[in-house]
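Supplementary notes (optional reading)

For those who missed the lab, this is the record we used. Protein: Bulb-type lectin domain-containing protein. Length: 1229 residues.
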Amino acid sequence: MKKNKKIYLIVVIILVCFSLVFTGNFRIFNDKNNKDNNNAQPFLSASNPVPYAVWNQTWGGGLDDSSNLITNDSSGNIYVGGTTASFGAGLIDMVLIKYNSSGTQLWNRTWGGVFDDTIYDIDFDPLGNIYISGLTTANPGTDIDMVLVKYDSSGTQLWNRTFGGGLDDRGYEVAVDSIGNVYQVGWGLSYGPGSADMYLVKYSSSGTQQWNRTWGGGAIEYCNKLEVDSLNNIYVTGITYSFGVAGDIFLVKYNSSGVQQWNRTWGGGGVDSSSIISTDSSDNIFIGGTTTSFGAGGIDMVLIKYNSSGAQQWNSTWGGGSYGADDTVHGFTIDTSGNIYTTGETWSFSPDSDLFLNKFNSSGVLQWHRRTGGWTSRERGLAVVMGPSETVYVAGHIGGTGNYQWYLANYNGSGDRQWYSVIAGGLSDSAEAVLFYSPDNIYVVGYTYSFGAGNRDIILVKYDNANPRISITSPGGNEFIGNVAPNFDISITESNLDTNWYTLDGGITNITFSGLTGTFNQTEWDKKGDGPVTLRFYANDTGGNQGYEEIIVIKDTTDPQISILSPTSNYLLGRGPPIFELSITEPNLNTTWYTLDGGITNITFSNPQGTIDQGEWSKKGNGTVSIRFYANDTLGHKGYADITVRKDDFLPQVIYYRTWGGVNSETGSAVLIDSADNVYAVGHADVSGAANYDVILVKYDRLGIQQWNLTWGGSGSEFAWASVMDSSDNIYITGSTTSFGSIAEDIFIAKFNSSGALQWNNTWGGNYKEEGYEIALDSFNNVYIAGNTLNSIISDYNACLVKFNNTGGFEWNYTWGGNNYEYTNMLGVDSLNNIYVGGDTNSFGNWMTFLLKFNITGDLIWNLTWSGSGSNSLYAMTLASLNNIYMTGETTGYGTVGGDVLILKFNSTGDLIWLQTWGGINEDFALGIALDSSENIHLVGSSESFGAGDYDYFVVKYNSLGILYWNNSWGGVNYDEAAAIGFDSYNDFYLVGSTESYGGGYYDLCLVKFDNSLPSLKINSPNQDQFYGNAPPTFDVTLNEANLNTTWYTLNDGVNQPFSGLTGTIDQLEWDTTADGSVSIKFFINDSGGHEVFSQIDLFKDTFAPTSGLTFSPVSGINIVNISTAFTLTADDGFGSGVSLIRYRINNSAWIDYMGSFDLSSYADGDYLIGYQAIDEMNNIETENTLVVKLVSPTSTRSSPGIPGYNLFILIGIGTFCTIILLKKKFMK
């Protein structure tokens, strides 16, 4: 019998000991006509892949071979565990088969003896070794043992271990903890107190048994499931008849030392058993099984959750009460949100069993259930596994025509079946286990009767349920790329890759490539213009599924474009650097910078609006300054734009200061300059010392010499706050008086001529208090006074505007205000004789600035208020061309914390144009404002932040755009305050105010003059590029400087030569020591303020004589001429002033001016001495040149006299020095 069996096995081995690949009828269906009790769902959308079977493998022989175990290692190799009757040593042996991801069998191993050996589980350790667990039969029916076999990844058996006694002991699941210890669970009859008890055995990785445990009572315990948690605790579950009411589910927890931590039972009056166990990431334990104690009837599925302490969290049952009413769970899986998906078979809803899939949330509440239903025979869900994005794959079998059909289905998290696959082989085929490795690597193992070597074979099918997935490493999104086509680096996730390609034009042109790196086709890249370019990569798999990924890059082959919006060309700036604003067109902008010195120093910036670096600006001298702005992109393209501005950081200097006053207090409030540049200081003084103030008016000439002074007032007090001058140099002063007018304080106006004579005066007011703070004239010399009037009803101040005609007659008045205070201190009249009144008010909320506009008849045109930020007080106003309005004062809402100067610019309709502040860390405020002849704004006041002492005079200059030119200060160690500023015809300016630092009293009126204009110097003669000889040039210059100090000149930047007057002659000795050639003469002038300018003229000095030459033709020999010989003279002065005359003479006779070629036709034969020389424009005379020639007429004898036998050959006259005669001997015939 044994012999026959061996022969049979040999035949089988010859025929089928290898794996077979079949091409059976695989069918994948969409779900439009599914038979679930769910609504039909579409199978595929445009973005969904078409699932397909990539390959299949069968393994077996002519007998019975099957598998329901599958796992994978970290390299993607697949391990299939099962049983075989076709191969091995006994009736039924364990089999373990290893495949790679391409379906190639790497090896197979069988293990067993002569009887039945059955595998129930497989698992890996951390090193990639694989363990198979099951039972082995030594004696059928009486001696069955647990068995555990270890293989390495090459299929080499490392060891095997059995556990059991002389009775029936069965091994089931195996698990490996985090450090490689191995746990095997089972049950048996050989050990323990009862008929059958649970076994748990721990082995080291080398197969050494560490300990074993039994658990049970006096009855029966069956156990076939275990789980190891993250702390290497072991959970075992099964059914117990020793504890509980009837057969109950049990759960026992052990630590890694085998110490029981706790045990739990669950059940009722029926039979309750477990078949599945799992843990989640929080080490909660989930048990799946069946119950007859609870549920809808018959056998129901049960799902129980415990925490790691053994506390039951919840339990859920599911099933029906109709038909067979048996509902059995065969598998479950848990997603990342804690939802549980269970699958199995149900007899509750149709005469035959249906495959079901249920979803429970993390609280055990059923979310939905789905059934296949409708096929003609038994349908089972045997395994379920999670896929991506909360999808699940269910494996099992469904009914066919009298047979099972292989079934794999995919459901989304909402329970919608996406697709299903069946193997319709004609016989029974079943999917027993499913492994999800990746969307394109889904492996299903089971058995087939339809295919293979015969009877029942193991079948392994690989599915691809994914489009190829492409990841682009480079180029990067929105990366900028130049003319050269970019390289690419991609990765493609697809185990069944077929073809990959890319396109740059939306698919019109497709370029295939191999590998994952490369360079885009240059021709295709060249077709693309600058801007966004979409690069799309494609890949398809062997099933025709296509994936793509695209990225947009920016093609950039042009230089950045820069437009300079400000400053404008030739814009004038002062000490403060220019503000710039650029427009840069470049999507791939990398760096921006500018230079003021041709690139020696580059200043980078990031904002297209900014300010030129102060340090770089300070390095530049006055004159034109070229600024070049650069921009480059990341590809190295560089663009630039240039602008030239002008710099003038001329800083006015104090020429003199004058104080006026006595031992009491004198205050200056206004300054006026007449048409002859005389200066008038206006203020008020406590003349008597009894605090009764009078108006003071002091006149100085432009040199600061006092011409006269006067006081004006009565028995009370007069305070002068403002003054104005008309075109006839008449002076108008306003303020307040208690000496004249009504019984209270009134506004006064007094008119004086330029000699100080009072022309008229008038007052305006009521029974309360009125004060005049500003005064202005219109084009008709009507007088306007702005100030305050006390409202007797509500006891607060309102703004008032009063008009007098040019003879002092009252015309009209206007008051404006609310229920609180208005303080008026600003007034101006525009070119259209509109009047502007400004000040502060708190009648309309917080304190704010108000501005009123009136026409000449006193009608209010508009009013506006401006509050800004923080506290702001404005004290002075002036109007410019286009009727723009400038206001100044003090702010704590802008600038630094101490209080800064505030300046505002409004247009004629009251719109704010710009705002600037000036100051330091202490208090700084402005009281006066004026425009120079170029409408630059000058502010004056008192500064605690700058200067020499407590508070000092200051003056600040801005241009019309609000750009700071310069600031300057004056004062002493005590309190000094400037109140007003005025300009003379030279653009010099005068500040008037009060000083405590200088003078003889408590406070004195103080006038300070600043030199605000550079000296000017014009050279009238000599002329540019004029030539001079030994005599030095004379000069004539024009000077324009009111505060002239010193004048001097230099030759070629040599020694300073002072001069006085406007004409003169360059110093002879200095001229004599200057070399011939170009001579640069610089005339310098400085003023008493230290400002220095120069003008330059370039001349030529020429003290060298020209050179001349003489040629003649024809000749009869050397220097032998005849009467027809023409003599020609030429001369050259090199780089001198030029030849003015060439002359010659014969035999030292009188000089003859050379007018053209000459001859000796009027002379007899003989020797002649010809002298010649040239004279240049500077009368430099060349030393005479001489030449001796012999005149021989054509009929004369040619023999040389005096030396017989020789001919005269050469006779050369060289000046007066020597004569050389060369003789040539005659040859005699």
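If you only remember one thing from this example: Helices lie at 2-16, 522-527, 614-619, 1068-1072.
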